[in-house]
TrEMBL record:
Forms membrane-associated dynamic filaments that are essential for cell shape determination. Acts by regulating cell wall synthesis and cell elongation, and thus cell shape. A feedback loop between cell geometry and MreB localization may maintain elongated cell shape by targeting cell wall growth to regions of negative cell wall curvature. ATP binds at residues 19-21, 168-170, 216-219, 301-304. SUPFAM superfamilies: Actin-like ATPase domain. GO terms for biological process: cell morphogenesis; regulation of cell shape. The lineage of its organism: Bacteria, Candidatus Chazhemtobacteraceae, Candidatus Chazhemtobacterium. Gene3D superfamilies: 3.30.420.40. Its main location: cytoplasm. One of its GO terms (cellular component) is cytoplasm. This is Cell shape-determining protein MreB. One of its GO terms (molecular function) is ATP binding.
Amino acid sequence: MLDRLWSILSHDIGVDLGTANTVVHVKGMGVVIREPSVVARHLKTKEILAIGTEAKKMTGKTPENIEVVRPLRDGVIADFDAAEAMLKYYIKEVQQMMGGLKASLGRPKVVVGIPSGVTEVERRAVHEATVNAGARQAFLIEEPMAAAIGAGLPVMEPTGQMVVDIGGGTSEIGVISLGGLVLNRSLRIAGDELTEAVINFARLKYNLLLGDATAEQVKIAVGSAYPVKSESEGKPLSMVVRGRSLENGLPKSQQINSVELREALASVVRQILNEIALVIEETPPELVSDILERGMILAGGGSLLRGIDKLIAEETGMPVWVTEKPMEAVVRGCGMVLENEKLLRQVRVVRGLD
Ligand code: ADP
Ligand code: MG
């Protein structure tokens, strides 16, 4: 009881700075914020106008003097100022949620999950931004490690664990043993490219122009990587999408089904599969046999694409599991690290700043 009370009072924070979504976890409370990693600002003055959902709504609808940016593109920090603004905004928001407690109990400890492709300079910058945002101490953890911890894998054991995190901008594939990443590849092909494949498909097959948001909805509603059950009964999934005709510029509706869409997504899915195969090839045989026995874990929003687990299992001959609430695996891992001193000591911290 006292423990729990202290957990709530100390409000240590885990932040997953994802390419598509930023998720914030507060010790003792769970996930409290989940918002798109999007920032809207004034083009000239760089004044921040909106962050998160509100900023995402502006995508494709802004007047000339406003720009909408995704600070983390392709698994690297593409726009540092915007990333810092986002980080600060969410840390402040948690502190506000906690109200007056902050004043009496001091500043939180913060663990930030960052893409494994981030450079040393960027690590320092994220660290500094977190401290500037009000953290007492800031720790950085590589996302594949955080995802593995969040998925409940026993990362400290001397056995091989494999995790594939398919996010918006990157697919991160990691092999973990004894608390460290033995192998790690970051592929800049993931959910965004699947969405782009939907746009290209609609344009080429139906002369239909779709916006990003619509294409993403189509992908989620009828996209798949493996034949859907109802197809064998002659009933593929389908939906009617609205876009603009490229022939006459007028609004146009078109029915799209799961069979044609799977074909459209196949080449992107294939690239992710190839990367997984490469990592398996490079993994030492002892660890491969561990993974064969225990299976590989999928995390990230891309792992929700229908049947992607089945396809990976079939192609690699390994058991494959999608972790519970895959879009929260990284932040859950950050939260678990905050509650476990031993793990926290293992986390790679930027040297010279802490
Ligand atoms: P990141 O860690 O890069 O922020 P996330 O793990 O939050 O990314 O995943 C975001 C990606 O997952 C987006 O490309 C989104 O379209 C995709 N996604 C979310 N839900 C689904 C779903 N049900 N089916 C397919 N893709 C999905
Ligand atoms: Mg992620």
